[in-house]
From TrEMBL:
Designated name of the protein: tRNA (uracil-O(2)-)-methyltransferase
UniProt GO BP: tRNA methylation
Protein task: Adenosyl-L-methionine (AdoMet)-dependent tRNA (uracil-O(2)-)-methyltransferase.
Species of the source: Cinclus mexicanus (American dipper)
Reaction catalyzed: uridine(44) in tRNA(Ser) + S-adenosyl-L-methionine = 2'-O-methyluridine(44) in tRNA(Ser) + S-adenosyl-L-homocysteine + H(+)
Length: 296
């Protein structure tokens, strides 16, 4: 409905109508096929020549629809728009009746009739669309450029500072602050620190940091999970990752040997630089570089 020149591609997946979950009407078809027919119907009602295609993707739901051309001249756009409005309102009434049936049950006919008449009544005047209305009342399309808000676009200096602050918080919460014997390279007393809940960690961060994290999806938890090398987040609690406890790869031994011989270390080991006990793994076993001389 945005313009006469608009084209569309849609890959139907979850079974939803305009105003709620899609309700089945034909038992002779599978739920998927019936829903596909409904999506195609939407395209026809909107005045498109609807084409169906099957994508070559690893999914059970791979049937798509393409609308590349209109089935009516541009002069009839107002008439088709009115037709679209009537179709949407009819689907709203159908959804209301289906909801009523599920809530009350088919055996309670008298009670259901009253509810369905109320739910299926004509929409209020301020919600009724006219031929000149392009979108439904209150509809807000997404922005043309979608912002990346998974903490990946945050400044590197800011992320490094948060990681260091949280790691120090966990290490300082460890009642047994023992360091390894550096001379004997004894790593048996390597300190993993304590675990804290996300709420407890957030309480120790300043307001400016929290404000910046709240603008991202998942906030603090997403940032910590992104820094997989340093942290492990399990059941809402934050732990410093101990790479000695990581499960060995299921790769075949000969393949593993070949990969390890060809592997290049492209990132510095955070623990080698920042942890008071250094890295829990020797240089040859750590997937990260112990010093710039190991970087490739």
């Amino acid at each position: 409905r945005s313009s006469y020149s608009c084209c569309y591609f849609v890959l139907p997946c979850c079974f939803f109508d305009f105003h709620g979950k899609y309700s089945r009407r034909q038992s002779k078809k599978t739920q998927y096929r019936e829903y596909l027919d409904f999506v195609a119907q939407v395209g026809f009602v909107c005045g498109f020549h609807v084409e169906e295609d099957c994508l070559r993707i690893p999914s059970t739901k791979r049937v798509s629809f393409i609308g590349k051309s209109r089935s009516y001249p541009a002069a009839e756009r107002a008439l088709i728009d009115k037709q679209i409005t009537q179709f949407i309102n009819s689907r709203r009434r159908a959804c209301a009746v289906a909801t009523c049936d599920r809530r009350v049950g088919f055996n309670h006919k008298d009670h259901c009739d009253g509810l369905c008449k109320e739910a299926g009544s004509e929409p209020p005047e301020d919600e009724t669309e006219t031929a000149g209305t392009v979108w439904m009342p209150g509809f807000q399309p997404r922005e043309k450029v979608e912002q990346v808000r998974n903490c990946a676009s945050l400044p590197r200096d800011f992320v490094d500072e948060v990681v260091l602050n949280v790691a120090n918080l966990l290490l300082n919460a460890d009642p047994q602050k023992s360091c390894s014997d550096k001379q004997g390279e004894n790593m048996n007393t390597w300190s993993q620190g304590e675990s804290l809940s996300l709420k407890e960690v957030a309480e120790h961060l300043n307001k400016e940091t929290l404000k910046k994290l709240k603008s991202e999806y998942g906030g603090l938890q997403t940032l910590l999970k992104n820094n997989h090398q340093v942290f492990e987040v399990l059941n809402g609690r934050v732990h410093i990752r101990d790479w000695r406890k990581e499960k060995p790869s299921k790769t075949k031994p000969e393949v593993k040997r070949r990969l390890s011989a060809e592997a290049f270390k492209t990132r510095l080991c955070w623990f080698f630089i920042h942890h008071p006990d250094g890295c829990s793994l020797p240089s040859e076993a750590c997937p990260y570089a112990h010093g710039t001389e190991e970087l490739r």
